[in-house]
Amino acid sequence: MAVPFALMAAGTALQVFGQYRANLDQAQAELENAQFYEWQANFAKQAQFRQADLASAQYEFRKGAQLSAYAKGGVDISGSAAGVVAETAAAKIAELNAIKRKGDLEYGLAIARSRQAAGRAEQLQSFSYNALQAGTTVLGNAARASDNNPNSKFGQWMTSTFGE
After folding, report:
1. Residue 54 near residue 155 (C-beta atoms within 8 A)
2. pTM of the model
3. pLDDT in the model for residue 44
């Protein structure tokens, strides 16, 4: 009985150690994900500013072309001509707001993912998480051992304590 118990104990120890190493490796991967998401958030902000600058320049060019055409044609910039220029300005504002909302959303999503990955890495590295996982592994293996030999002292104790 001592040899099977020793083998079970050694196998359980190796299983616990393997789970611990896997948790540390997964934690490292989560930290790398967190760093990537931080980079992605910064990129989203930079892209937002670039898109806003491009859209602003395009609308300013369009407004300039409109004003130039009106001036070249001798059109008084009032009434419907002023309305067209105002519509262009309003479209510019709406476009810049849409770009800002989209950029803020992408930034916020990347930051949330970064925090989630960092939190998961912290959990995987924590003593309590690994101790709980090790405890369930040990108890699970002990329960399987008692199922295999219900007449052993451990099997009798498990049966008397928890029932069949």
Report:
1. no
2. 0.70
3. 96
